[in-house]
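Chapter summary example.
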Amino acid sequence: MTLGAAVVDPRARWALALGIASVALIYPLGVFLGPIALVFAVSVLRRINGSGGILAGARLAKAGAICGGLVTGFYLLALSAELAALLLFGSFIPAP
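The structure predicted for these 96 residues follows.
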């Protein structure tokens, strides 16, 4: 017997908001918000999955994790390109 529908965890909404903010503010703050959104969303997903169906919002948390992961991956790719340029050519990629 169930007592009602599962309650959406407010942290799932925060995880999505952090993920969207990391994409929207990718240049000035994305380097900080991307990893924070990714780690926070993964912790929320673990909490939701461990609740036994009492908490909902896994899709919101997954979307936040995807957004944060994309921004984090973008910055890791840019960092690896800078490191490769430094090792191969002796200087960083010049700014336009």
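To summarize the output: Residues 48 and 94 are 45 Å apart (CA to CA).
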